[in-house]
Amino acid sequence: MLRRRDKTCTSPKSRYFPLSTCPSRRAYSPSISRRSGHRFAVRKCDNTASISRRSGHRFAVRKCDILQVPGAKPVLTTQVNSADRLVIAIDAMGGDHGPAVTVAGAARALALRSNLFFQLHGDGPMIEAELARHPALKASASVHHTDQSIAMDEKPGSAIRRRNTSMANAIHAVKGGEARAVVSAGNTGALMALSKMIVKMLTTDLERPAIGCSWPNPKGFATVLDVGANVTSDARQLIEFALMGAAFHRAIWGTDRPSIGLLNVGSEDVKGHDEVKEAHRLFKETSLGLNYYGFVEGTDLCAGTTDVVVTDGFTGNIALKTAEGAARFMQDTLKKGFMSSLPAMIGAWLAKSALKKTLRPLDPAESNGGPLLGLKGIVIKSHGGADARSFANAIKVGISLAASGYEHELSASLAQMTQSLADSPADLAPAGGQTDMKDLAEASGSKVI
Fold it and tell me: Which of 56, 118, 237, 449 is 20 to 30 Å from 146 by CA-CA measure?
């Protein structure tokens, strides 16, 4: 480890000297890692600054204190106003790995956005142990202890009866206005049931939330929903999903009139089960203000045929996990091929940067984070088996939604839908907030995502 010389240093003229020989170590001890170039990025770390060298000569300071360097004038650094702080509630116990991943993921997200503050809900001692490994996160996080958590295989009906779990407390933080978004890698059925019970639906016209995901294609990304919140969906719910998906895609990707496709086994009107065919009819015959394309098939998911693809949670989750498995298989196959011989290894080395850029969109970790659309608050579902990088990307989805006008756009779209379906048959009347929680828990009881 090398340390930059200050004005009181009597060491040789070299700009850096070993840490152990620094004459001002006790008074000023920033941590410096040498990299290419001369750019310095200063991060907050208690009363010192963590500095890494980067290209260029400019200094980017992100510390909320004054750096006192012996023999030099005080350097005022950029401060983050508490009013500009974006608070994210984390279900630290959720997922297959618990705090080991959730805390590390929060630390990675903080490195990208200095105005973040995290509420870490879960077992206090376990969280504190992980925070000790990420000292930069300590000043931007608070620990909210509870000894209750929801198992990945726990029934949603059981989860909603326990009110002091880490997941429930994190959702309550959004409900009470303490946090702008909640991110959990925990039980999907429990997350949906608790979110609907605590933060409620955005309007009474909405029946259930849907999980959306960003699906890579040659044109960019499509929004696919539902990918796991609802095992079955009727025609009205599929229309609601289309409105949610269009509002989400417009808010995140900036498309004025996203095209919408309804996932089916074929493009002909006579194909598909009754719910899909009825939804198809309503899309065409009612004035919903949607840019409806028609039926799309599984091959259209990766072709970018439409901006939004609507399906039930059972089909959507199978499609999502099949695509993720295929992407991993392709990556593993390429890796084995490039490691099969010396010429292949040389070719891989020469094409390393191009391969990395090409394969990056196919990495499931890059598109991790499915929002539960249709709620009054922002709830993000991460993969249960996510690593720190993947969980950090789920946090980024919450940040993007918090900065968008998604809720207002969806409210306006729902008002138009309600008017358009005013003369619909009785079986399409909205259930809204009257949905029984027991039925909701049973409908979302399978473990997905």
Answer: 449
